[in-house]
Amino acid sequence: MKTYFMGIDIGTFESRGMLLDEAFHVVADYSVPHSMMNPKPGWFEHDAEKDWWGDFCKISKELICAGKINPQQIACVGASTLGTDCLPVDENCNPLRPAILYGIDARASEEIEWLTQYYGEEKAHRLFGHPICTGDTATKILWIKRHEPEIYGKTAKFLTGSSYITAKLTGRYVIDQFLAKGSFRPLYHADGSVNEDEIGVYCRPDQVAEAACSTEIAGQVTAAAARETGLAAGTPVITGTGDSTSESISVGLVEPGTVFFQFGSSMFFYYLTDHFMGDYKSADGNGCIKGGKVFTVPGTFCLGDGTNAAGTLTRWVRDVFYAKELADEKNGGENAYAVMAREAGEVEAGSDGLMMLPYIYGERSPIQDPLAQGILFGLRGSHGRKEINRAALEAVSYSVYQHLLLFGEMGVPPQTIITAGGGTRNSTWMHIICDMAGMPVYIPETYQCSSFGDAMMAAIGAGVLKDFHELKKALPTGKVLQPDAENHKYYQEHYEIYRQLYLKNKDLMHRNRN
Q: What is the rounded distance in angstroms from the CA atom of residue 216 to the CA atom of residue 123?
């Protein structure tokens, strides 16, 4: 009987699943959209029952139907979700409130400030591995404890998205040790065990999931989950992980010296090293890089963080300046993003002197400033939507370049750049990034995404692939972009303007609060 592997990823605005055969070819691919709630400025949430579990069940059934297979043929299932979220559930794994999303949600700013004072900056840095920020899930747990005591009192477990999906499937509460040791500090020790000395500030030790390897079999699909998903009861399920991790694995991030930039709603990066590296802060205000942590691939470490806007910035441009094209698209016309990519390609490097800062939702890496704001600089009467469109692409690309410069300052300039995510469909954007970097950029096949990575890791869990190095050998070959020397020179010369726009306006941004 032929064997298959299923992977399903829950993203910010969309969930996607894939079914792979024994040769790791895609035999079924299905996606469903969902919304993101923004109840207050700086608050971002999902309905976990509807958007996470509901999407998973629908996609699972569709994949089995489209693949025309017997559910018994699925050897293993893997799941990933967006970032490191905070979801309190009761003893039956029922969500008690909407899930508080990853670093983009900045509601816990007072908790961050309190914790920094409570521990002191030195101890806080030691416990969290970096200055406490919006990406730290512990701050969100503390926010619930302080602001929603009734929900806090009913909480059996505080989960992230992948833990929730795996628990719904198997009844077991587990979390990828990479996520536990990273974004859930200081709730866990470096070995993945619960840090009982510190966890009391946030919750009880029994309220967090057990740390395990992402490819470890967490359990089997229960009879109840089988009825909801269409999967066969007893099907093995791996621990799973975050969407950025699974996507990075799907494109071959397994060797030190490789940096992976994922362009989705935000831009997330992982930079693989062969040794641990601590926090780095540039002396000239160029930004900072959070200290590394053990990565999912055994024997490797990674630097990892993300911006608050990438696809969300291009989405804003689309909604504001390409409303007609968006309406036409809904009526069967050309995709609005395709129009935008074409028009951006008609504008030369530099957007005719127009420059943008991409901080429309504050910023995480590399400036770590939730109060940062977006800027359009150099606007002239001759500029139109084409220039604004390209300036937005260049804004995110300048952020990529800023990260590359910081890696160089740290003494570990990348040898290989891989990009992936929905943003890679915009060829103009990818060429801009390549020109900024001044080195080749590798772009995998479009189907190499988080759900593809989930399915490939499920193959490791099932024992069909020995390890991550065998996984990489089984991956398809994508395409390579080469930089334009003149454009690279232009961006090098104008980067300082981009940097100074933030540094010289930072205080004004902080004063300009609603």
A: 33
Task: Determine the residue type at 206.
Answer: D
pTM above 0.85, yes or no: no
Render pLDDT for 456-469 as a digit per residue (tens, 0 to 9): 999 999 999 999 99
Q: How far is CA 74 from the centre of its chain?
A: 27
d(CA 318, CA 299): 43
pLDDT (tens digit, 9 = 90+) per residue, 13-60? 999 999 999 999 999 999 999 999 999 999 999 999 999 999 999 999
**Cα–Cα distance for residue pair 181/330, rounded to 1 Å:** 43
Q: In terms of residue numbers, what domain contains 414? A: 253-443+484-514
Do the Cβ atoms of 398 and 437 come closer than 8 Å? no
How confident is the model at residue 514, as a pLDDT?
Answer: 66
| Residue 292 confidence class, pLDDT cut points 50, 70, 90 | confident
Calpha distance 345→333 (Å, rounded): 20
DSSP sequence for 100-138: E-STT--TTHHHHHHHHHHH-HHHHHHHHSSS--TT-HH
Of the three residues 199, 221, 245, the one that is the final residue of a domain is 245
DSSP alpha helix (H) spans, 190-330: 223-229, 243-250, 311-321, 323-330
378 and 321 housed in the same domain: yes
Number of structural domains the chain divides into: 2
Same domain, 72 and 177: yes
In the numeric block, the tokens 């060429």 are attached to: 431
